[in-house]
């Protein structure tokens, strides 16, 4: 039987909270880089999600929304400053746009922790983290110099600060429930704050929040409990977790497996999304970013083997994200019972209706897949000896594709080159600033003229 005859990814699923999901294809979280000014949802966000809403996904996960505007991953993230200052109408419009065709949308909520280079906080005020251990940008001289400026040593969080962040996660979840979203996903992977509490490399605390592997979970458990206390029982609460940090001294698969078991015992979670890596070692972006020594057999989905191992330690529904491109790969993953859902991120910026292709039974397996594309112009950036620069340029390229749809109101363009885009942006900037440059020349010219003739 071919995979188009039996289609596990087309089957509906119900989360423990009762949320009904029509198929197993999840659009994974991608920071949209569309926030500015008040960093609230805007027309661009509505237009972007209107496209995904029409794409026949089972579930949409939004890009990460920051629970504290002082510590975002990027200044272009959507952010919450406080419950009181939030314009709920803007979030309601976001929920309506993304769910206009019946696909439930879950908002990913995050605190960037030690990976927050800047935010709405005083200049040079460092980020906060479980322990004062900076994120390494690499061993080269240039990486270490840049790290001092961009990712300085974070300040160890006091217990009062921990309680404040827990409250902010709960407040943000409450806002999203009121706005009409179907749930929230706590971002517990990729090295951000929750993930850094879960990792022995970045959490060296000796108090209740870090003295043992189980104690490293306390922060996450408090967030789950605080959210559950303020949202309806039917509201989905999930978490994205690392299978491993792929970094020496970081979270290992063994400890990650214990974490899944402890979350199951703790309760309150409707799904776990499996990813891996941090910005020191961005395994979420592909096996080429995993140190050669740690790479396992090349396969379509990067973290599927881990999912199969962890499956027996938890009854919580699992999403695996990273690398899925073909219907066959997706169907095989769900059929093997390693996961319940497949998460897809990058291809969905080019094919907003990807599930329609994947679920089309008239298509043979070899055609039922995401388009293949090569991002031209990234080679030069891969040579820069700073961690995550290569994957960062790839991320940016996908942001540009989203912006073509959201801002320019046109279609994505897989042929877009990195150097071409940089050049056109520079030209645009130059064009915009031509009047100011002319004005400066005029002022200089007039002052010389006045000096020569009158003085
Ligand atoms: C533009 C872009 C933005 C991303 N932003 C987020 C994010 O906000 N939260 C998150 O958990 N992962 C984020 N990711 C990672 C993806 O969710 C996903 O884990 C990764 O791209 C691997 O999946 P894929 O191979 O299907 O692209 C982002 C990836 C890209 C390309």
From TrEMBL:
Q: What residue ranges are annotated as transmembrane? A: 436-454
Q: Which SUPFAM superfamilies match?
A: FMN-linked oxidoreductases
GO MF terms, alphabetically ordered: FMN binding; oxidoreductase activity
Q: Entry's CDD domains?
A: OYE_like_2_FMN
Q: Does the keyword RNA-binding apply?
A: no
Reply yes or no: does the keyword Transmembrane helix apply: yes
Residue ranges constituting the NADH:flavin oxidoreductase/NADH oxidase N-terminal domain according to the UniProt record: 11-354
Concerning InterPro entries, the annotation shows:
Aldolase_TIM, NADH_flavin_oxidoreductase, OxRdtase_FMN_N
Annotated keywords: Flavoprotein, Membrane, Oxidoreductase, Transmembrane, Transmembrane helix
The entry's protein name is: NADH:flavin oxidoreductase/NADH oxidase N-terminal domain-containing protein
What species does this protein belong to?
Adineta ricciae (Rotifer)
């Amino acid at each position: 039987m071919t995979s188009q005859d039996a289609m596990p990814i087309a089957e509906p699923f119900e989360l423990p909270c009762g949320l009904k999901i029509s198929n197993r294809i999840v659009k994974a979280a991608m920071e949209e880089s569309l926030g500015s000014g008040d960093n609230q949802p805007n027309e661009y966000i509505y237009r972007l999600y209107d496209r995904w809403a029409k794409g026949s996904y089972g579930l949409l996960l939004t890009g990460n929304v920051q629970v504290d505007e002082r510590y975002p991953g990027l200044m272009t993230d959507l952010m919450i400053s406080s419950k009181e200052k939030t314009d709920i109408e803007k979030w309601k419009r976001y929920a309506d746009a993304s769910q206009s065709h019946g696909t439930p949308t879950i908002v990913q909520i995050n605190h960037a922790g030690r990976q927050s280079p800047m935010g709405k906080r005083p200049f040079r005020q460092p980020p906060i983290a479980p322990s004062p251990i900076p994120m390494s940008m690499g061993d080269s001289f240039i990486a270490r110099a840049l790290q001092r400026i961009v990712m300085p040593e974070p300040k160890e969080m006091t217990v009062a600060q921990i309680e404040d962040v827990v409250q902010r996660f709960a407040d943000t979840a409450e806002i999203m429930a009121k706005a009409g979203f179907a749930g929230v996903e706590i971002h517990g992977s990729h090295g951000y704050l929750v993930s850094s509490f879960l990792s022995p490399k970045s959490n060296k605390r000796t108090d209740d929040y870090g003295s043992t592997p189980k104690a490293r979970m306390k922060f996450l458990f408090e967030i789950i409990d605080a959210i559950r206390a303020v949202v309806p029982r039917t509201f989905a609460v999930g978490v994205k977790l690392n299978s491993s940090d792929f970094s020496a001294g970081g979270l290992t698969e063994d400890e990650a497996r214990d974490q899944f078991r402890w979350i199951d015992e703790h309760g309150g979670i409707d799904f776990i999304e499996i990813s891996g890596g941090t910005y020191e070692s961005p395994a979420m972006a592909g096996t080429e970013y995993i140190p050669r020594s740690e790479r396992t057999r090349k396969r379509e989905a990067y973290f599927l083997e881990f999912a199969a191992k962890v499956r027996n330690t938890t009854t919580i529904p699992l999403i695996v994200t990273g690398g899925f491109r073909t219907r066959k790969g997706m169907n095989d993953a769900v059929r093997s019972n390693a996961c319940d859902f497949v998460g897809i991120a990058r291809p969905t910026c080019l094919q907003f209706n990807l599930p329609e292709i994947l679920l089309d039974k008239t298509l043979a397996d070899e055609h039922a897949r995401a388009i293949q594309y090569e991002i031209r112009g990234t080679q030069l950036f891969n040579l820069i000896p700073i961690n995550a620069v290569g994957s960062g340029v790839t991320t940016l390229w996908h942001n540009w594709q989203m912006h073509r749809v959201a801002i320019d109101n046109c279609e994505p363009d897989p042929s877009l080159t990195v150097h071409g885009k940089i050049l056109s942006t520079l030209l645009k900037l130059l064009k915009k600033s031509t009047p100011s440059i002319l004005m400066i020349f005029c002022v200089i010219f007039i002052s010389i003229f006045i000096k020569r003739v009158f003085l």
